[in-house]
């Protein structure tokens, strides 16, 4: 399952380190993917100038409450008026105290992720025990191979060379005698890349059809191995890119031949392809053409579909025969149609150059499996091209994230077994039901929806598939062993291990074309600090990794839990009703607005007007650090989800409070329950960022940066201004408010 139409809670702008575009599919017998320092609590008795009297409330002194109070105190800037800038109020000290050093970003999420990484490393670096089942042993082996830097230093070079000779018959740049000036040879190399999960010309994979999510189909998207499109237009950037390639090539082959012309030609071709890429806003529209293999052949007759798709990819790699009638969904049309033209023209003009670039795309993706001389060059380049920057440069953590990604259910089992509090699963499930129910109550209140549209929305809200914590199958030894039976990892060969997994994933993905889609399966491993909505399965998912403080703690007061994971739950539910999600019905079938088959035209029009308010509002937000405004259009889906989510969770909390009474407050703080609800919400988005990261997040991200995830949502909520007694027109309480859900 690709990430193509999976809505995530937070931005993952850091590229997956190891080519990872596909997930192990789950079907019945096969399957689908900073330490929070505790400071000694300082009991600052702060008299909030605006808080209503709270003397009557009791104080909670449990560990969870003291820890939470501590975090609040550590993060907040008490000198700021929450009604002027709620983000600075909740996160001011966090930003001031956090030191970025080599990191491009440190946020609450990153701290928790780091902590999770540390916990996993404790488990995965332990030597094998007799009770470990085979997949756990293999996960440990994979980790050891990743950590075995001396082997990588010793053999990495030779491995790469052998691999290139074996799979691509050599690199024409250095092995001109092997070069075969034949069209078929270029298709063979294109497929060789595909076999290892590197999609050179376009992404190809099998997943549920947009028009009928019970049927698997074959999808084509623009690929992701390029640099950002904007760089290709800047001479200075292209020169550093060429220098980088030259350095890598010299490491690969120390011969003195002058490669300048070859590199120029390669980069020229890469640029030609990249200039047709769709940007984030264009991509998120999800426009696609329904075709068949037969119509691809007719419409793009210059490309040899028969050889590439039918013979090489499906037959040779997947051992599957597909006919001309096989349906295809073609996304990123502008890119794909031009890329095919460019590819086939180059094929006539300069096969050698094409081959050189194909192999470069492989080497570029493989740098991290190579000796330091190679991999050490990437951080330098990343200074010029922030999208190449990594989340961490610490080898152990990188390797942990990699094994967690590659074997998510095996690693997830270890995590859940050792660190997950099982009570959380049941208790958070109840919260989800409460918030889902609140959303349904809200749906009945909107006068801008007519009866038919409301009915469709209610049915959809009712049939959301809820996934919490972890799938039960991770504790079924037989199941897990079967799922990972092909993962026979070597102790030392990191390069081989990674490409073996990629190959397994590709074969597994291709085979899905023959199977019925099981919509209700898990799509994420448990050891992730994130949450998801999938419109095709109408599924919300909260992996075990996010069910911890400050999001959730079964021993914390519910005003914290609702401000934390509650807002996240609301966010994911609301994705089903954001500008894209609302077009999918309860069964995950996509309905275009023109069809009028899901909502009435009038309701769609009303919705669009309301969405426009949010688009305009966020477009006006200025990220001062880089002096750029947010892209309200590109981020609208996430902003709609943020705004709805916080409201739903707040209302659900108030309903809960009505039934169960007011909860004790936090020690050392003079805030009431409502205020603490909002403060905890604000603190899950605390973050400090390098400007290069912000540039990338603003231009390419689907999410607003943390600052505005806090300010935008609270600005639009009456309940917020009431909680903090804000005057109309104060910065964090504008008179004009936007609201859809
Ligand atoms: Zn989201």
TrEMBL record:
What InterPro entries does UniProt report for this protein, alphabetically? MetalloPept_cat_dom_sf (IPR024079), Peptidase_M13 (IPR000718), Peptidase_M13_C (IPR018497), Peptidase_M13_dom_2 (IPR042089), Peptidase_M13_N (IPR008753)
- Which stretches make up the Peptidase M13 N-terminal domain? 82-471
* Key words of the record: Hydrolase, Membrane, Metal-binding, Metalloprotease, Protease, Transmembrane, Transmembrane helix, Zinc
The answer to keyword Magnesium applying to this record is no
* Annotated Gene Ontology cellular component terms: plasma membrane
Identify the PANTHER family for this entry: PHOSPHATE-REGULATING NEUTRAL ENDOPEPTIDASE PHEX, ZINC METALLOPROTEASE FAMILY M13 NEPRILYSIN-RELATED
Query: Which residues span the membrane?
Result: 26-48
Its name, as the record gives it, is Uncharacterized protein
UniProt source species: Brachionus calyciflorus
Question: Peptidase M13 C-terminal domain spans which residues?
Answer: 530-740
Record Pfam families? Peptidase_M13, Peptidase_M13_N
UniProt cofactor(s): Zn(2+)
Q: Any idea which GO molecular function terms this record carries?
A: metal ion binding; metalloendopeptidase activity
What biological-process GO terms show up in the record? protein processing
The family database entries (CDD domains) matched by this protein are listed as: M13 (cd08662)
| Keyword tRNA-binding tagged | no
């Amino acid at each position: 399952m690709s990430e193509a139409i999976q809505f995530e809670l937070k931005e993952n702008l850091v590229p997956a380190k190891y080519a990872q575009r596909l997930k192990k599919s789950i079907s019945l017998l096969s399957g689908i993917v900073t330490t929070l320092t505790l400071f000694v609590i300082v009991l600052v008795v702060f008299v909030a100038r605006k808080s209503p009297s709270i003397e009557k409330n009791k104080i909670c002194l449990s560990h969870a409450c003291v820890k939470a109070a501590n975090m609040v105190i550590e993060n907040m800037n008490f000198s700021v008026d929450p009604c002027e800038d709620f983000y600075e109020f909740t996160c001011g000290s966090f930003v001031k105290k956090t030191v970025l050093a080599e990191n491009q970003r440190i946020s609450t999420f990153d701290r928790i992720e780091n902590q999770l990484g540390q916990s996993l490393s404790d488990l995965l670096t332990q030597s094998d025990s007799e009770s470990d089942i085979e997949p756990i042993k293999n996960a440990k082996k994979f980790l050891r191979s990743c950590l075995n830097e001396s082997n990588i230093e010793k053999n990495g070079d030779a491995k790469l060379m052998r691999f290139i000779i074996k799979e691509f018959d050599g690199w024409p740049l250095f092995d001109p005698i092997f070069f075969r000036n034949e069209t078929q040879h270029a298709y063979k190399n294109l497929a060789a890349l595909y076999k290892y999960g590197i999609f050179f010309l376009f992404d190809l994979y099998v997943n549920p059809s947009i028009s009928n999510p019970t049927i698997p189909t074959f999808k084509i998207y623009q690929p992701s191995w390029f640099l950002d499109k904007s760089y290709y237009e800047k001479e200075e950037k292209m020169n550093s890119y060429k220098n980088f390639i030259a350095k890598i090539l010299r490491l690969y082959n120390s011969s003195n031949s002058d490669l300048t012309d070859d590199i120029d030609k390669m980069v020229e071709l890469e640029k030609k392809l990249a200039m047709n890429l769709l940007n984030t806003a264009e991509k998120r529209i999800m426009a696609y053409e329904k075709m068949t293999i037969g119509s691809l052949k007719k419409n793009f007759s210059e490309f040899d579909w028969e050889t590439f798709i039918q013979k090489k990819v499906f037959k040779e790699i997947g051992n599957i025969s597909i006919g001309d009638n096989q349906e295809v969904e073609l996304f990123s049309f502008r890119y794909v149609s031009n890329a095919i033209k460019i590819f086939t023209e180059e094929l006539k003009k300069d096969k050698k150059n094409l081959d050189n670039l194909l192999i470069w795309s492989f080497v570029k993706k493989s740098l991290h499996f190579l000796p330091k001389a190679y991999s050490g060059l990437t951080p330098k380049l990343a200074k010029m091209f922030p999208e190449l920057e990594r989340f961490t440069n610490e080898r152990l953590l990188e390797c942990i994230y990699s094994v967690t990604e590659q074997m998510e259910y095996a690693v997830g089992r270890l995590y859940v077994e050792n660190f997950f509090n099982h009570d959380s699963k049941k208790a958070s499930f109840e919260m989800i039901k409460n918030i889902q129910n609140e959303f349904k109550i809200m749906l009945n209140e909107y006068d801008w929806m007519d009866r038919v549209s409301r009915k469709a929305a209610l049915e959809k809200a009712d049939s959301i598939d809820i996934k919490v914590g972890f799938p039960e199958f991770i504790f079924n030894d037989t199941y897990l062993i079967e799922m990972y039976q092909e993962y026979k990892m070597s102790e030392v060969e990191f390069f081989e291990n990674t490409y073996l997994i990629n190959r397994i994933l590709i074969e597994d993905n291709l085979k899905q074309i023959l199977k019925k889609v099981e919509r209700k399966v898990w799509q994420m491993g448990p050891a992730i600090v994130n949450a998801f909505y999938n419109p095709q399965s109408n599924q919300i998912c909260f992996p075990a990794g996010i069910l911890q403080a400050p999001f959730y703690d079964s021993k914390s007061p519910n005003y914290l839990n609702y401000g934390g994971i509650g807002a996240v739950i609301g966010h994911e539910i609301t994705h089903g009703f954001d500008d894209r999600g609302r077009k999918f019905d309860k069964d995950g079938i996509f309905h275009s607005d023109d069809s009028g088959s899901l909502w009435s035209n009038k309701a769609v029009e009303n919705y669009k007007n309301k969405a426009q308010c949010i688009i305009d509002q966020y477009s006006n937000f200025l990220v001062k650090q880089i002096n750029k405004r947010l892209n309200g259009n590109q981020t609208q889906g996430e902003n709609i989800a943020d705004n709805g989510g916080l409201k739903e969770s707040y209302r659900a909390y108030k309903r809960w409070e009505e039934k169960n009474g007011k909860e004790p407050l936090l020690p050392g703080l003079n805030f009431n329950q409502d205020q603490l609800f909002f403060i905890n919400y604000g603190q899950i988005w605390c973050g400090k960022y390098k400007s290069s990261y912000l540039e990338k997040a603003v231009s390419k991200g689907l999410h607003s940066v943390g600052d505005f995830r806090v300010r935008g949502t609270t600005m639009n909520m009456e309940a917020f201004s009431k909680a903090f007694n804000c005057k109309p027109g104060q910065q964090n309480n504008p008179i004009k408010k936007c609201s859809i859900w």
